[in-house]
């Protein structure tokens, strides 16, 4: 059973989501504050965190940052306003996806499944690109022999891009392949994840060698010969 | 030329010209009077001198010859009488001398009177000749001298003065017009500034302010208008903040409702009919309420100016196709478009616009619903039409108004009443526009080079 930690301050929203998601077959745990949530994480690691951004004590963004600093646990943030600032802040803090409240449990369920699927690869062995080594079976990445820790979303993005080096993927395409979003996904998810991935695997993220921008179209995996 | 400007101009010119004319007339008439009296004095003094030079040599009582001598000495147009004798010359005989004669005899002195004859001005002078004895006593001699002096030359001089006064007044006219224009301009410039500010305020630009200058009534008015603008802006900001806060506050309970609606829905099968119907209604209305609040939040974002365009290079036609397909409208809506039209756009916002237009056409119009896409080098045009009756003239001005419903009885449509307003705001955020005509033909224009 998939374990989900819901961190949400409003008791009725918390209980409502707990009821609804339990019926979708999740093992629901809840916390009412950011600190309680972090404590619950230490006690028993869930498979995914549903994180409300407006929390009374510790800001949801800060909670997200601390979860990221501690590892690659998937985080979906719940934003009450859906305001751009919240979304951007959440993505920069390392969230894998976001859902705007009020959200139908069916939508949440789909997003949770999509995030969790990213951990399951489509193994085809080991890909080596210059000094970058991607093990598609063990889902590990190393650069110059040093292991690099990627979140499931970053991993899935790297696997998708590196499966066809040189091919240009539009943001829309990546949203469908990596995030499994419908036709109107938010392309900032892609841009933010690309930035985080570059910070981890590129020597100089400002002049990327592996994840290259194709202006006006999207991204492609390098190094491209010629 | 504005009405106020014309009135100021006329008033200023009238005052200036009347003033100049009055001053010219006054000075001309004063000068004329002075001229006439000087001429009269000179003429009477001359006559008195002429008589005085001859009178002492006359024999008394005078005979005809003496009278003739006196008459000659007094110059032309003169009459000299004594008892029954008279000596006359020229025009004097044509005048009626009764009045001057009486005045001269009564006062026993020289009398002058201005008269007009044959269209010419004359000065009639009558004087008794007085004999002054050696001891200084003066006795009337009984001789009377009448003279007519032509004043035409003097009158001509007076006329000349009047004409030059009129010329001076006329010269003042263009000067007055120039001055009036300048004065009107200086008065009207702040008025025009105020008008422009008021016009911008009326058009909804509540940041418009007029700059107060100087320290007059117009400055007071400017300050008042600025204060009015500030209180309008405050009221609007309050109203918008309220709408934003209210929609935000509504979202939390809606989040709970949206979460539990599914649970409720899965349980409705086991309920009694009444309870089942109630549960279904609650579920439907939660959906409507959610859409309404989402639209309200969207509108308050536009109002607060926090709506941001997220432009990316995308295919407009593909976006429209996705929009129709995602809503299952592909079979009801004909898409007439080129294969692809790549341009910078915000896909989500274009989706909102197209979904709204096509959705309205399907709900309120009639088949066939058609979406046509065309492009010029500068802009892309998306035209949504339907085969329905079109929009009545009284409806057309309100189609983009918030919560405006064409028919109150049909108010319970699936829409929030904000859709077209949001669609138009989205078009304008792109730097484009959305318009409607009487045939319910909605045209969306999007510039092909959007500011990013």
UniProtKB/TrEMBL annotation, chain A:
List the SMART domains hit by this protein, alphabetically: REC, Trans_reg_C
Report the GO terms under cellular component: cytosol; protein-DNA complex
According to the entry, every stretch annotated as the OmpR/PhoB-type domain falls at 124-223
Superkingdom of origin organism:
Bacteria
Which CDD domains has this protein been placed in? Answer: trans_reg_C
Q: Name one GO biological process term.
A: regulation of DNA-templated transcription
Residue runs in coiled coils:
none
Check the record and name the Gene3D superfamilies matching this protein.
3.40.50.2300, 6.10.250.690, Winged helix-like DNA-binding domain superfamily/Winged helix DNA-binding domain
4-aspartylphosphate is found on 52
MF GO annotations: phosphorelay response regulator activity; transcription cis-regulatory region binding
Keyword list, A-Z: DNA-binding, Phosphoprotein, Transcription, Transcription regulation, Two-component regulatory system
Q: Which InterPro entries match?
A: CheY-like_superfamily, OmpR/PhoB-type_DNA-bd, Sig_transdc_resp-reg_receiver, WalR-like, WH-like_DNA-bd_sf
Portion annotated as DNA-binding? 124-223
Q: Where is the Response regulatory domain?
A: 3-116
The identity of this protein, by name, is DNA-binding response OmpR family regulator
Question: What species is this protein from?
Answer: Catenuloplanes atrovinosus
Q: What is the lineage of its organism?
A: Bacteria, Bacillati, Actinomycetota, Actinomycetes, Micromonosporales
From TrEMBL, chain B:
Name the Pfam families on file: HAMP (PF00672), HATPase_c (PF02518), HisKA (PF00512)
Give residue ranges for domain Histidine kinase.
Answer: 245-450
Keywords assigned:
Kinase, Membrane, Phosphoprotein, Signal, Transferase, Transmembrane, Transmembrane helix, Two-component regulatory system
Q: Sorted alphabetically, which PROSITE patterns does this protein's record hold?
A: HAMP, HIS_KIN
Question: Which reaction does this enzyme catalyse, per its entry?
Answer: ATP + protein L-histidine = ADP + protein N-phospho-L-histidine
EC identifiers of the protein: 2.7.13.3
Q: Which GO terms describe its molecular function?
A: phosphorelay sensor kinase activity
Q: What is its main location?
A: membrane
Stretch forming the signal peptide: 1-26
Q: Which SMART domains match?
A: HAMP, HATPase_c, HisKA
Superkingdom in the source lineage: Bacteria
Where, subcellularly, is it found?
Cell membrane
Presence of keyword Transmembrane helix: yes
**What is the official name of this protein in its record?**
histidine kinase
Q: Which organism is it from?
A: Catenuloplanes atrovinosus
- Output the lineage of the source organism: Bacteria, Bacillati, Actinomycetota, Actinomycetes, Micromonosporales
